Amino acid sequence: MFESPPFWMYIAGFLLLLGPLVTVHEFGHYLVGRLFGVKAKVFSVGFGKELAGFTDKRGTRWKISALPLGGYVQFKGDMNPASIPDAAEMAKATPEECEGSFHHADLWKRALIVFAGPATNILVAIAIFAGFAMIYGKPVTAPVVGMFSDHSVARDAGLKLNDRIVAFNGQPVDDFEQLVGQIAPYPGREVTLTVSREGAERTFKFKAESVVDTDKFGNQSRIGRIGIGTTVREFVRLGPLDSLQFAGEQCVATFRMMVTGIGQIITGQRSVKELGGPIKIAKFSGEQLSLGPLPFIGFAALISINLAFINLLPIPALDGGHLAFYAAEAIRRKPIGPRGQEWAFRAGMAAVLVLMLFVTANDIVSLPIFGS
Fold it and tell me: Which of 67, 166, 239, 262 could join 48 via S-S bond, C-beta 3.0 to 4.6 A?
């Protein structure tokens, strides 16, 4: 019997998760913009109608808006929250009006202001992972085969007890949990394991088993497994520098898994039904909150990395789209024309809205009331 948290936990988990993560993302933009003398007109948590707010002495309107699905900083010179330049305003701007305008700032300053949002989310994830490593320790499990499952594709391929796995698909392996994470994105696909046995290395190629994993809340995901286990696991506390290195490695590994997953969806190796949106985030956040603060904080680190990853995609209207335009400007030594930028941003915004509608429909269909 699957356990379901009370409904209020889904709402609380969603707000406690996305509210702070979006706020720190936008605050990253704001802080770096302020550092470079760019004036912020609006700092909003949420979209749509303003529910509450105030204007500070610098003229920035700080507000909470009705739709808690994101947030934005609107700098001086922006036509709208997507930071599309107002061509008319730029053309007639006086030298005094250019001062503090985002679009009149140096190219490298604009790029850093835009990159600061995703970078802040990555720093949040690093802080959480590093904090866990210092307080509770890093889980250390030697990548040594200690047992096989009843139906083990690894054993059928020739692996034996006490084999030490040194590489997966050419990537070094130092820890068993790391190996589990590396195998998960490859259900039913060929994988390559390099093992050390009696002082010699051997390589095995075989297909990972495709398994539908179900957690205590009934959430299902298709993952790869090879049918091995280990018997020894310990937690080793790390110092500040080692904790930061560990946290960085965790972030890189998570990014790699995201890239692999997106690539598999694009190539048809995974179903688009695995994509999730706000409803699924609310569901998972409520479930993690019901398990206690530590699982919830750990989940927040993963979502923070997700926010950074999504925002860095080269889609107009997202941070990555702005950075792509700045890269083109650096190469061409002049910006893309205002009309071209406006049409690109409109198309990007439309694509984002269509994707949001699609994943929301996906989320609704996957709810238990529809029999999934």
Answer: 67
